[in-house]
Amino acid sequence: MVVLLMGVAGSGKTTIGRQFAAGLGWDFADADEFHPPANVAKMSAGVPLNDSDRTPWLAAIRAYIDRQLTAGRDAVVTCSALKERYRAVLLAGPGPVKLVYLRGTAEVLSSRISSRQGHFMKPAMLASQLAALEEPAGALVIDIAQPPEQIIAVLRRAVTP
User: What percent of the chain has pLDDT over 90?
Assistant: First the structure.
């Protein structure tokens, strides 16, 4: 199984994903690792990505998911996956991929982003992510106002037998 954690910047995808995967002995991959250098440079300059920028990035994430499923390896993958058409790419194909949406208020998200050090995602870009966000239908939705251990407990109950 692959669990796809989605949400805007600051929603805790990496923190929750790493801890959840480690607790189960699953593989972990952060979508940031799949960005080509041009995307990182663009975001570092405070410029939001467009759909052309996202196409190879989403394809690389989907290829990783396919490799994990083909190998029979459980994994957690993070990705903002803001729009339904992006999720269609990520969720297409054989094998179980469970979509989990980490949802939070603009205030909580902004506070988290502002406290990060050395990340290419700038606080000013949160507004563009929130504007682009199409909340998913059919996803497990978890409120990020809870402590990480509670979020992980909810996640574990929802995706493990």
Answer: 64
